[in-house]
Amino acid sequence: MEKTDERYGAYIAILKEELIPAMGCTEPIALAYAAAKARAVLGCLPDRVLVEASGSIIKNVKSVIVPNTNHLKGIPAAATAGIIAGDPNRELEVIASVSEEERNEMRNFLDNVEIKVEHVDFDHVFDLIVTEWKGDSCAKVRITDYHTNIVLIEKDGKVIFKKEMETSEAGEVRTDRSLLDMEHIYDFANSVDIRDVEEILDRQIQYNTAICEEGLLGDYGSNIGSVLLKTYGHDIKVRARAKAAAGSDARMNGCELPVIINSGSGNQGITASIPVIEYAKDLSCGKEKLYRALVISNLTAIHQKTGIGTLSAFCGAVSAGAGAGAGIAYLIDGSLEAIDHTVVNALAIVSGIVCDGAKASCAAKIASSVDAGILGFQMYRNGQEFSGGDGIVVKGIENTIRNIARLGKEGMKETNKEIISMMVDN
To answer: Is 247 part of any domain?
Structure first.
C-alpha cells in the first residue's frame, strides 16, 4: 500500500484515535471525566449531583473499582472522583494523579452530598449526563456514543457547547472505519513505514506490559492469570492467556496503572496486544515484525467492533481475542489466508460470550477469547476450518464479520436489556 493511498492515512489516523491511554475501566472513567468537566464549568464543588446514564453505562460501572479512590465502587464513586480530583484536560486519564488528601475528601463528599442516579434511554447505547448544582447555579455535561465525545455543555440553562454529529474532541469528523477490511489491513501492515506507527505501538507495549506484569505479581480480583500458570504451566499458549487475564484483573480491581485501549476498552486493548507481544518474544521475531503483527491485531479488533458499536451484550474480548489470533498467525505463518481462517475460526468458537458489565470475570473471558484465537490458528495449521453454513459463519471473512456485527448490535439488544434488568434489580 502506497502512502498516497487514502487507506494508508486513514489507518494511521484510526490507530491514533483508538490506541489512547486510560486509567481504570473506561466507563467509570468517562463518567469521572464528565463530572470533572461539569465541576470546572460550575466553578466550585457542588452540593447536589444528578447522574443520568444509559443501561450499558450502569452495567459497566456497577461492579468495578474506580482507581485512586481507596477501592470505591460504582457510579457515585466515579462521579465523586471526577469532581474532587479530576483534571478534565487529561480526558481518560482524568483521575491519574490523586493525592491522599483528595482520596479522603472523596469519602467525605460521598457521605455528605446527594448523588442521585437515574436510568435513561435516549436511543444511545453509550449515554451519560452529569448535572451539578451549587445553590441555584448548575452545570451540565453530556457524553454520547464514545468515551470522550462531549456533545453538550450547559451553565445555568445556557448552552456553552453543542454538537450534533459524532466527532473527535478536536472537532474533526472521526476517521471513516468503513475503510477497514482484512485484505487492506494485511496490505497496510506489510507496507507501513514503521516510523509512522512506532510511537503509538511502543506506548501500547510499555503500558500494557506493565499492568499485566503487575497483575501477575499482585493480588487482584480472581487472579485468573496466576491460576492458569499454576494449573497448566508456562507454555507460550498459557502465558499469552495468563498475562492478558492478569492485566484485566488488575485494572478491574483498582490497579493504578494506565492502559492503552482499543475500541474504547482497556480490556480489549490488553487482549489485542499482550498475547501478540508474548508470542513475538517467544519466537524472537524482532521489533519490526512485532509492530506489523500489532497493526494487524489492533486494526482487526477495531474492524470487528466498528459494526457492533462501543457497548453491547456481545463481549468485546471476543473481537480482541480474534484480533490477537490474527496477530499471532502473522508472526508464525505470515499469510493472509492464515489470518482470515484464524479470525473466522475464533469467532465461531466464542461468539456466544455475553457482556454482563466490567468486573473480575472479564479476565476469564479474555483468557477464553485468546485461547479461541490460538486454537483458531492451530486449526488452520492442521488443515481444519469452520466453513460457510456452520452456524453464523458464511463464505468470505467480511461476510462473517458482518454477521457477527449484526448479532452483537441488533440480535443482542433484548439480551442487553435483560442483563441490565438483572443487575439493577439485584
So the answer is: yes
